[in-house]
Amino acid sequence: MTLIVSVNIGRPHANPWKDSGVTGIDKRPVDGPVAVTAPGPKGTGAVGLAGDRVYDIRNHGGDDQAVYAYAREDLDRWAAELGRELPNGVFGENLTTSGLDVNAALIGERWRVGDRLVLEVSCPRIPCGTFQGWMRKEGWIKRFTQAALPGAYLRVIEPGEVQVGDRITVEHRPAHEVTIALTFRALTLEPDLLPALAAADALPEETKHRIHRRTG
User: Fold this and answer.
1) What is the pLDDT of residues 78-104, one digit of tens each?
2) N or C terminus: which one in the chain shows less Cβ crowding within 10 Å?
């Protein structure tokens, strides 16, 4: 069954790894339904889940990064590889999923979560120094990048609520083959794949501009 196994909200945490001074990467599971709405443009710190926010407002937050999802199956893979427990939320994800290959999701794919909430896959997560510092693992950015299991950022198309146990139904899959994993690989270690991303019109405008600059 494809469902939400954890809903995670950030707690402000000191960030010695970036100039922002504070990070919201410390996500903890919460009980009960959480309201999810479109946060508006990047630059305010707002994100989709009520009670959560980001502090590096230049690089995070806004409509295209309203919600971050990561699969429990991928966390389990990392836990086995690292030899340590990885609780839900530890990667900074808002939604920990089960039964869904998040990295195989197509850009522009839409998920209905529970009864009302509709989310749209927008782009992969790109690892940063805060993530490496949080994981306390030397070389983590390189390792995470090579694995190409980044998880997905999502837009809020129809607001609603999310809670543990909500089913995820894929309601729409675009007529292209640009997945989260492919997009991540193209933007990081395999730039030869960048032209293939042109088929994914639902990519964030910021990402499209980045691709244009790199491909001419």
Assistant:
1) 999 999 999 999 999 999 999 999 999
2) C
Three-state SS for 35? strand
Residue 134 near residue 160 (C-beta atoms within 8 A): no
In this prediction, residue 1 carries a pLDDT of: 87
Phi, psi at 134, each rounded to 5°:
-65, -40
Weakest mean pLDDT among 8-22, 24-38, 56-70: 8-22
Tokens of 19: 């100039």
Residue 63 DSSP code: G
Helix-helix angle 180-187:205-215, to 10 degrees: 40
Q: Tell me which DSSP letter residue 172 carries.
A: E
Look at residue 45 in the predicted model and tell me its pLDDT. Answer: 96
- Residue 19, pLDDT > 90, answer no
Could you tell me if 79 and 73 are in contact, meaning their C-beta atoms sit under 8 angstroms apart? Answer: no
Beta carbons within 8 Å of 135's beta carbon, 6+ residues apart: none
Please count the other Cβ atoms lying within 10 Å of the Cβ belonging to residue 153: 27
- pLDDT for 216 equals 76
**Mind listing the pLDDT tens digit for each residue in 175-207?**
999 999 999 999 999 999 999 999 999 999 999
